[in-house]
Amino acid sequence: MCDITMCSNSECPLRDHCYRYLAVPDTYQSFSYFTPHKVLTLGGPRDRCDYLLDTFDEASGPIRKVEDVDKSYPKIPVTEFKDETESD
Questions:
Q1: pLDDT, tens digit, for every residue of 13-27?
Q2: CA 10 – CA 35 distance, rounded (Å)
Q3: Phi, psi of 48 (to 5 degrees)
Q4: How far apart are CA 87 and CA 24, in angstroms?
Q5: Which residues have C-beta within 8 Å of that of residue 59, sequence separation ≥ 6?
Q6: How far apart are CA 6 and CA 45, in angstroms?
Q7: pLDDT tens, residue by residue, 31-75
Q8: Is this prediction's pTM over 0.70?
Q9: Within a 10 A sphere around the Cβ of 34, how many other Cβ atoms?
Q10: How far apart are the first and last CA of the chain?
Q11: Which of 27, 17, 7 is nearest to 66 (CA)?
Q12: Which of 75, 56, 57, 54 is nearest to 8 (CA)?
């Protein structure tokens, strides 16, 4: 397993081809909850994640099926943080 931070976002629409989500975790593995955002393209809006590692580009280890990963991750609540430096 590569030393990467894996993704635990089981609601991500890009998870079915993201190496960060599908890779087999190591015994001591770091995780983060990466979130995609919408971008406008000529074909219309689509999802994009700045942290996506496409499974076609990453050949450094085995990957799992999306269904197996979805069952293994606990649901982690997402907390929104307000930037205290911004003025109202």
A1: 998 888 888 888 888
A2: 10
A3: -145, 140
A4: 43
A5: none
A6: 26
A7: 999 999 999 888 888 899 998 888 765 455 666 677 677 666 555
A8: no
A9: 20
A10: 45
A11: 17
A12: 75
